[in-house]
Specification:
Blueprint lengths: L3 E5 L5 H11 L3 E6 L6 H7 L2 E4 L5 H15 L4 E4 L14 H10 L1
Parallel strand pairs: 1-2, 1-4, 2-3
Length: about 100
Amino acid sequence: MTNTALIVGAGSGLSASLARLLTKEGFTVALAARQIDKLSALTQEIGAVSFAADASKPDDVNRLFQQVEEKLGVPEVVIYNPSWRVRGSLIELDPADVAKTLEIT
């Protein structure tokens, strides 16, 4: 039986490095992101499984954990790495966008 690791908010930076490291350590890696098409190269490189999920939506998160458990088993490691960015001058930022940034990141 292999250990399973889930990386929520997977991308090409830190989470990709962690996915590679976990794979080398013998973990089966599940990658979750809003747009999994951006993960195809990493998924193929390390033999991971990708799942579409928006970390800002509780139903997506619940479905993600159900899907990972059904396909790979209960994850022993979960890394939460999603982010949401809003850019602009401070006085022009929409308070709702700032709140979403803080909630997700």
